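$ run holo --ligand "2-acetamido-2-deoxy-beta-D-glucopyranose" --emit tokens
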Amino acid sequence: MRNACVVFLSFAVSALAYQVTAPSASKGWTDTGAQTLTWQRVDTDRLNFTVVLTNEDRSVMPINDQVLAAQVDGTLLTTVLNPPSAGWPVGQHFRVNLVKSPEELDTILAQSNEFDILPPKEETTSKTGTTLRPSTTPTTPATQTTVPSGNGNTGGDSADGSTNPPGINSASVPTIAHSGILSVFALLGFFLA
Ligand SMILES: *[C@@H]1O[C@H](CO)[C@@H](O)[C@H](O)[C@H]1NC(C)=O
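-- output --
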């Protein structure tokens, strides 16, 4: 029994380990504001890693291997990365490497797929790039984040701190109560008239 477990576990480790789930080819970054990195890990993975932006095209990134964050807590499964001091480079064929430390950029734990960093599409008026929008895109269970808005830091312990039961949107409760009161008043007005 135990042997079977060990065999299964070691298979799982080799099959999984750290994996970058975003950014990706289909969902890149913008050049405006902080950008989100999400990943998966297994229990045997290192507890922390350093995030490095890479691009083989020197016309896009004159200096390769830009360290975006060091000592990221791997158990968070998501973090928000501020732009480099010179701002985000813009172009295609970027990759993000999760490496062991800023001193060991070649010890790569995981590598993202190639992705783009492009100016945001002009959908709304958000030009100043708010650091965190509430995630409206459907997420797979593995990348579900529930990042509290306004928490732009990499620290904290938001991995599974959500206490809201699913399906109960706290914002909608007062609205329902409110419209209930309104209809009571409407009824009263009807009878009083
Ligand atoms: C980073 O992870 C390594 C290996 O898991 C651990 O030895 C080290 O203490 C961690 N460092 C920090 C700052 O958490």
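-- notes --
The mean pLDDT is 76.
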